[in-house]
Amino acid sequence: MSEKDSIRVIIADDAINQLDSVLTDYKRPLIISDVMIFDKYGAHVENLVKADVIWSISPDYKKGLVARFSGVDIILGFGGGKSIDLAKLFASDAGLEWVSVPTAASHDGIASDVASVMHNSYRYSVKCKQPKLVLADLTIISTAPKILTRSGIGDIISKTSSLAEWRLASECAGEPLDEKIYGTVDHSLEAVLRDGGLGTLVRSVIETGMAMTAFGSSRPCSGTEHAISHAMDRRMQSLHGLQVAFATPLSLYFLEEAGYAKHSSRGIVEFMRRKMMPTTLRELDMSRDLFLDDIHHALKIMEKRNRYSVLKHCKATDTDILNAISELNY
Ligand SMILES: [Zn+2]
Fold this sequence. Notes:
Helices cover 50% and strands 13% of the residues. By secondary structure, it is an alpha/beta fold. The chain has 2 domains: 3-141, Rossmann fold; 152-327, Up-down Bundle (Dehydroquinate synthase-like, alpha domain), CATH 1.20.1090.10. The strands form 2 sheets. A 6-stranded parallel β-sheet has the order 1-8-5-4-2-3. A two-stranded antiparallel sheet has the order 6-7. Helix 3 links the parallel strand 4 (74-79) and strand 5 (98-102). Helix 5 (146-157) packs parallel to helix 10, helix 9 crosses helix 12 (288-304) and helix 10 runs antiparallel to helix 11 (265-274). It is elongated and about 60 Å long. The N and C termini lie far apart (47 Å). The model has no long low-confidence stretch (mean pLDDT 93). Bound molecules: zinc ion (ZN).
């Protein structure tokens, strides 16, 4: 079995109580967390786990940090996206395994091998390795702020655009496509569109993250809509899932024109409104000109990554894009 197949996933109410059995082979786990999570669950975790636990609370990312604690033999990311990303980075640096213990289902990085790092107010991705185990406690995750759950739903519904564009890019520009991985991501997407349950969302963000690792790139889960969000990162730091969802109808609009969309752009806007996600420029305090500039920048990002954009396929002019923005009531 390859490393890619050997990841274990536990999704259950009170799954945190299984932490000790998960860590039986380890003596000194280093837990990366934040103040809020530590205050809420620190004592409970220390009571549960027999191993000699060390905590690092909201550390800055610096290479060599793990070496300062002697004898660390596994790393845990316990918290939101930031703690999980730091655990990935530290595990990579130290050549250790890591365990993902998410406290929110806000994006599909929970189980992926890619960490998102901010540098000079620009977010970029660093390849690490996937977790040995994902321990998702639905009781803890259900107490996360609603906006984080909305963000997770947003990251999943962005797959309406990324999958359709992946198919287009495969058929029209020869980009590699793996049907099995396409099917996995599509299944996760449809499950979330059908069912608003937290367990379904958590499983979907984990499975889509694992699908990216299995494919070896983020292409199945990240298309022009993600590139637009990365361009938006230059000015704002809203939640990843809300930003990618915001850009999804625009990308879907052109995928419909190209004949590749399985979902309608207007249907996704309606879904987002029902879930109380931002769908208008006013809600993000953005002008049309700034959005257009983000879209231009996104096309450069796609070009740089050698990814075929549906906007390029449709030869979309500024007038076409501004028409789409009007028609979708952005
Ligand atoms: Zn994403």
